[in-house]
Amino acid sequence: MALPTLTPEQRAEALKKAAAARTARKELRDAIARGDETIPAVLDRAKSDAIVGKTKVADLLKSLPGYGPAKVTALLEKTGIDASRRAAGLGDRQRQALLDALK
User: Which residue ranges does the record assign to the Integration host factor-like helix-two turn-helix domain (predicted)?
Assistant: First the structure.
């Protein structure tokens, strides 16, 4: 499938939109790291909030204090969640398994 041809104005708008989304995801991860947001609360918003929904679960978990790449990988394997899964793509069982494992 070929990419659509964009005018310079459309390209600039798309780049601005993508940068805003990256910034919003970074702010979400920072809020989790500070303790302002919790993983259960964030996952509750995943279906309704596009920014949260498109964030990878592994990135959300790495934002938690004390959770690095090795611990996150082990947690995802234990719960049967693929490392590339996004928050909105979690099923009810996967979400519950993840929340149980974090307790």
Answer: 35-100
